[in-house]
User: Fold this.
Amino acid sequence: MEKDIIIPISDDIIAINEKLGGSVINPGAVDFIIARIDAKTPKRDYNRQIATIAAILWFEIIHGHPFIDGNKRTATGVMQLFLKKNGFKLNTTLGGLVYISLKIANNEISYPELIDWIHQRLENEDIH
Assistant:
């Protein structure tokens, strides 16, 4: 039996941005991202669902630009928090995260490519 997937709420996303010194321009955009997860997440392989939701969070926060500043950092932090809450982490370096964030921002990576990139690097996190 698969576990329920824990999805961050809008307040979690806004709190991460506030910790980075930012503030919200468009709170509706944050709510839309959460709604999009339910609409666009296929019910299939659990790890693939996790990768898909992580990709939506990362991609949509960067492209939706709901914050005055720190959208890429917020998106990366939210994606990592989502993975951690669901018992996963990415096998990549900080440089790898920055590189992919820039590729997302510059439209150099598609959703399917991002989902594959995340899925290939998903690791179960050792919860102590």
